[in-house]
Amino acid sequence: MTLRNENIQKNLRRRLKRVAKDACSIKTAKKRLPITRWLPTYNFTILIQDMIAGITVGLTAIPQGIAYAVVAGLSPEYGLYSGLMGGFVYLFFGSSKDVTVGPTAIMSALTARYVLDYSSDFAVLAAFLSGVVILIMGTLQLGFLVDFVSVPVISGFTTAAALQIASAQFTSLFGLDGKSGTVFSQSVYNFVVNIRTAKLWDPVLGFSTILILVLLKKFGEGCSRNDTAVRQFRWLLSLARNAVVVVIGMIIVYVIKVVQDQEPLKLIGDIGSGLPKFQLPPFSTVVGNETYDFSDMMETLGPQSIVIPLVSIIESIAIAKAFAGGAQLDATQEMIALGFCNVIGSFVRSMPVTGSFTRTALNNASGVQTPAGGIFTGFLILLALSLLTSTFYFIPKASLAGLIITAMFSMIDYEIFMRLWKNSKRELLVMFVTILVSLWFGLEYGLVIGILAEAVMLLFRVARPKIEISSLKTADREAFAIPLGDNVAYCAAEHIRRAVLEAAQVAGDDAVIIVDGSKLRSMDMTVAANLMAVVKDLERKSRKIVFLNFNPEIQKICESINNKHADKFINAPSAEDLGMLNERKFSAVNVNV
Amino acid sequence: MTLRNENIQKNLRRRLKRVAKDACSIKTAKKRLPITRWLPTYNFTILIQDMIAGITVGLTAIPQGIAYAVVAGLSPEYGLYSGLMGGFVYLFFGSSKDVTVGPTAIMSALTARYVLDYSSDFAVLAAFLSGVVILIMGTLQLGFLVDFVSVPVISGFTTAAALQIASAQFTSLFGLDGKSGTVFSQSVYNFVVNIRTAKLWDPVLGFSTILILVLLKKFGEGCSRNDTAVRQFRWLLSLARNAVVVVIGMIIVYVIKVVQDQEPLKLIGDIGSGLPKFQLPPFSTVVGNETYDFSDMMETLGPQSIVIPLVSIIESIAIAKAFAGGAQLDATQEMIALGFCNVIGSFVRSMPVTGSFTRTALNNASGVQTPAGGIFTGFLILLALSLLTSTFYFIPKASLAGLIITAMFSMIDYEIFMRLWKNSKRELLVMFVTILVSLWFGLEYGLVIGILAEAVMLLFRVARPKIEISSLKTADREAFAIPLGDNVAYCAAEHIRRAVLEAAQVAGDDAVIIVDGSKLRSMDMTVAANLMAVVKDLERKSRKIVFLNFNPEIQKICESINNKHADKFINAPSAEDLGMLNERKFSAVNVNV
């Protein structure tokens, strides 16, 4: 029996209510604008801390932004546009001090298909639509839908995304002619087809970049911000490694150009300069000679208009949870913040954004105190957009490819393969299905199929609960106990009926079948109907069956179907005691039979 | 603890195996041709009993066949064609002595749309395809899919089918001009639009038919085959009431025609006479000026090509189960029999068939001994086809409409509404969704939406298990116990994490959070990952948490994620004992904290 002491329960409820009330007594407006909570106590010390963190994050956000724009197939300035509004908007709506919203590899990968096949307008529209969908899901409190994405599915999806993004960079890494692809299978195919067009210096620079990144990472390991000066430098250099390799690449290209007046490497090339205009997102667009109105664009986006916001929510909430440090997370609030980041971002030509794990971790490690850190990141990006765009011309594509590929290898969770192999082959299967579908058909299909596969498998498990029939013998009688689980759903009705009939078949003529409902807390009508039908069947053969410890509510359901079997419901020592059954106890059970 | 006595378990397993082996030792061929089991012991007494039952069933099968052909919008002879092969084929493959396979109201209703909008060829092709699908499902042992159709969904579907079929007869009942409809909403709309064209004598005959049927049913109540002569006559008249009202209608029409040379009532009219040719089912057809090849026809049938076989299986298995009297039912065998009935039936222009509840019950009540009874039913139908088709010309449509409407009212399970209202509003909702979608969009959509709604609701219930946090107090310490259910699925991970954090929030600083896994038998990786993340979070706040009675396998999963928490897993008296916790025991629990 679980504890049912009235007083303790009441006390507990009162305390839970108080906690809930405390959370609600702050005005809703205040709740939905978390800035109102921390701004009044903001001071100069906090400002300095936020500034340091914000600038550190900014130094990573710039090369990452450029790289992720490239992943999406967009011109690099789009990556900066996308990093711009995140900080400013999250400042007002965000509830986590650490979370940094901006472009991420996966969001870029999901967008890539539409940019390559159509135009950049689709990326911006996707951001706007994602924002709207996230806002709707937030206000309708639909965040719980994310619960149906399991760890194996997320892991499989992330692994596939990393492979897809890395494979799409092969063309740049080897300096190949021709396009890469928007799906892993396509990228690999194009790579193989075009391998003969490989250049010499692009792969040299690309693989060197990868090597330097790995070494710089090792170089900074174990060092931190509060170390000796040397170790502080190592820490900083390691942190800034993405910027470092890009700058090295640019210098090499610049020197070759000035000295030899040659461009032996493929470069990013001319990019739009200056700040983005604040304008409506593109609700219609022209691709080639064809005009797409809003509904055409929606149709083109198709399933993505659900998958992008869903992935955006999953990434962002997962990160916010990881950095919440055990505090309750207001998922609704995070979704509202994320929704606004996307919607407002789309007015400055942002692609879809979400929380970035790398930059959030960096923000946290750099000692950020409030979401105000994002302002400084934003200003740094603005600065880069105003002054540095002409410099970006010299970024070699191979450097970026090396940077992106290296980042992707750290995104894969290698341990989970072995962990699932050892503990849960079923979940391993789900992961492989997710990976394979993602690699072959595209990430969005992989995610959807993974979620569905997991749900269908769950339904089948619920439909086939493990029933351990136990045989109980006494001097004068035999019994078979069929224990039911805590929730017996309609789809398990037939399975349980079969178990009862099986026991009846095995049992001797005067044996008793005990359907043990001691753990049972809920039961569907379908199961009740099936049980009553079995009773009727067994009675016709004059077999004895009893229902042990069914709670009154469930007994009521059974009796609503057939009220002639009230005498079959008995209460006796719990099923646990039946295991240690002795003759006396068992005859006690039998009294009512 | 459940009983784990090795010997008893072994003994049980051995006995279960023996039962299984007994079933398998009969050769598969013999198993798949049940006729081989009963034919060797067949004798004259059994023959007589089968003959009486078969002819009784045949007398009902003829008017029902005509009526259901009308429901499907087919010419009446199709109903007879459909009743023809059932008996002959089921004879070889059927495992139930009672089940009678033939046309049923619901199968006709599902077919009606295609007959009305296209042609009768679609009904025949639907029978062939259904047969193939059923055979495939049977051989792949996919019969368990039927478990996902719950009682509320079946009830809702049946109710909607009854209303749809009845409403489609309003046109005939009132002698209206114009078409009725293939969906309830459409039939009601057409009825209202055409109500001004109502005739006088059609509704008079129709409503009289209904009245006579109700009275004849009452007349036979309580009487049986083994009663006094008078009561035997009442029983027989009541049984044959469908035939009686049709014959009365025919006589009235005939008399009026002979005496006054008038036809004041709408009649069935000319129907094809004679036996059907044995020919391939129509794999292509012409409707109007358009030729439909096989793929066009498949496309036209659409979701029906899955829904019709599914419903066919549901009806047939449910009936076989009801008449199995507690014996294990070989669902695979029933599906094979049903599949062949449909496939072979389609060669004599049968529409889709399944087990008929009315005729199966009648067969049983008439004392049938083997499936051989079906032969006599078949021969009686053959006789009717050869000799009576010209007579059928005189059947008034209003009589049939009255007959069909009366049958439909007995198909609805009225009690389930109140039963669900009292016990399970959730399931009532599912039923209403099924009914409303069926009535508005069509039966097939209602069934599919009902199944999906039930599955989605189940997933949400699994995702939100009821967790009763209990507070345990001792003199020196406080604890909160969070009991887990027996199967914790990935989608419940977040819910459990929240429960733990909630308890931690309510608890005092030195309180212990006990996650009680005593009942736990399986847990997904996602849940393990979440629990380990919570431990990390709580540790950072130096809150104490322990995992009680997690079985070694589940502990292993948790430790594969984070192996630093082995000391948190403790075994102690079961959660049940924690309820009656005394100070000594509780300190024992605390030893390991």
From TrEMBL, chains A, B:
Transmembrane feature ranges: 41-62, 99-116, 122-146, 153-176, 236-256, 306-324, 375-395, 400-417, 429-460
Keyword check for Oxidoreductase: no
GO molecular function, one term: secondary active sulfate transmembrane transporter activity
Keywords attached to this entry: Membrane, Transmembrane, Transmembrane helix
Record bears the keyword Cell wall biogenesis/degradation: no
Subcellular location: Membrane
Domain STAS: 482-557
Major location category of this protein: membrane
One Gene Ontology cellular component: membrane
Membrane topology type: Multi-pass membrane protein
PANTHER family attached to this UniProt entry: SULFATE TRANSPORTER (PTHR11814)
Protein name: Sodium-independent sulfate anion transporter
The gene coding this protein: Slc26a11
